[in-house]
Amino acid sequence: MSAASASSAVEHVDVLIVGAGISGIGAGRYLKTELPSKTFAILEARAASGGTWDLFRYPGIRSDSDLHTFGYEFKPWRDEESIASAPRILSYLRETATENGLDSHIRYHHKVLSVSWSTGQARWTVHIERADTGERTTLTCAWLFCAGGYYRYDEGFTPHFEGRERFRGTIVHPQQWPEDLDYAGKRVVVIGSGATAVTLLPAMADTAAHVTMLQRTPSYILPVPKKDAIGNALKKYLGPERGYALTRRKNIAQQRFVWSFCKRYPRTARRLIRWANAKQLPDGYPLDEHFNPPYDPWDQRLCAVPDGDLFKAIAAGKASVVTDRITTFTEDGVRLESGRELEVDVVVTATGLNVQAFGGIAVTVDGEDIRLSDTVAYKGMMLSGIPNLAFSIGYTNSSWTLKVGLLCEHFCRLLAHMDAAGHDICRPEVADPAMQTRPFLDFAAGYIQRAVDQLPRQGDRMPWLTSMDYHSDVKLLRADSVVDPELHFSRVETSSVTATAVAG
């Protein structure tokens, strides 16, 4: 076969979406609805859709945001429970994909290894490995939409623990939860104090002999109702669509109020959270030791516990919290800096994620390797100097999907503008090389801080600021024009594009 024939055999799509989780399914739906003439495919490295909600299988896994805001704006959440379990969320996501005709667009076992951009051809060449067969394939696309989230799917973060190899019990990480793990009647220690740990503790407490949450540093933990009584009433009397829309607006306002209040009045917020915790726990419980973080509320994400389930498990004596540091594992448990030793049968290392931007995909532009840390995020959805590449990262201070929806809308409007104007290439460029930058995710959580030097940056002004405010983003991404002085458009001669398009 000649070189020209080989080139013509490469499949081409208008948009290639990487990831079939909540962001990728959302992006596919917006493309299908807003730009029905566009060809697209969704590549998923794993064997199933759903992203996080299919990957994690640990006991009790659930959302820590309400599904009226974590769900899609276009698809009402009909379940009575607004703080929902992973199976319910997964069913919702897959139902969305089927209803919008996306199932045929998703290609499983397709892991993207690298992407390279050619300005002369105005397209990306995407190198793929079939995870099920090891076969290498290639696609080309006009636009790349990275919807794979921000953490590694193949491994979670576990710090070094002295003496770990001596321990005779079982050690598991929530990200690789064994299906056959039997903890019934056993003593369990969950290491960590974040969202995963506070989910695991009450979920395991009814079956295990006892569950201990071992934390170095306390987190802010808030009891929240599992069911939204007002939202359920609105859906009952106004119908699912109108009721959902109003509940969504209510909860967006509520999230914004809580975050703003905590940032503006941290001392008052701390006192209110302490009061809510004390109300749930037995008299005389050592709140200052176990529920008194050394940082202000929302310097790190607040942990939500539906119907106060964590506090109920503690009050019932089924679970406990220990605030201390591990000195070493022993044959029968862990020894702490205080000298105390916890005897344990099962250790769960709920110690966090490994952050990884764009799934670790290697990126080159016109033959030059791109270091993400050298780029600056444009409107929180593109990167300086990289053409025709968009990505979706949700909010850290409210529901993830709120931002994803706005980004997808803006992305579709941008593509429509380019079609109307006859543009092939769209490249953000910082006009002021002296602009000050700071981390893309300006967040104190340990999993972010461990990887901050590997991530893109953000600027000190629009459009290079990464907004974490829904109402600001409604104006920026939904109401404002897609045209911007620091977003450069161009076109290429048709004769320079040599690969033949194949409808996808």
TrEMBL record:
Gene3D superfamilies: FAD/NAD(P)-binding domain (3.50.50.60). Keywords: FAD, Flavoprotein, Monooxygenase, Oxidoreductase. The keyword Lyase does not apply. The keyword Cell division does not apply. InterPro entries: FAD-binding_MO, FAD/NAD-bd_sf, Flavin_mOase-like. Its cofactor is FAD. It comes from the Bacteria. It holds the Pfam family NAD_binding_8. Belongs to the FAD-binding monooxygenase family. This is NAD(P)/FAD-dependent oxidoreductase. It comes from Streptomyces siamensis. The lineage of its organism: Bacteria, Bacillati, Actinomycetota, Actinomycetes, Kitasatosporales.
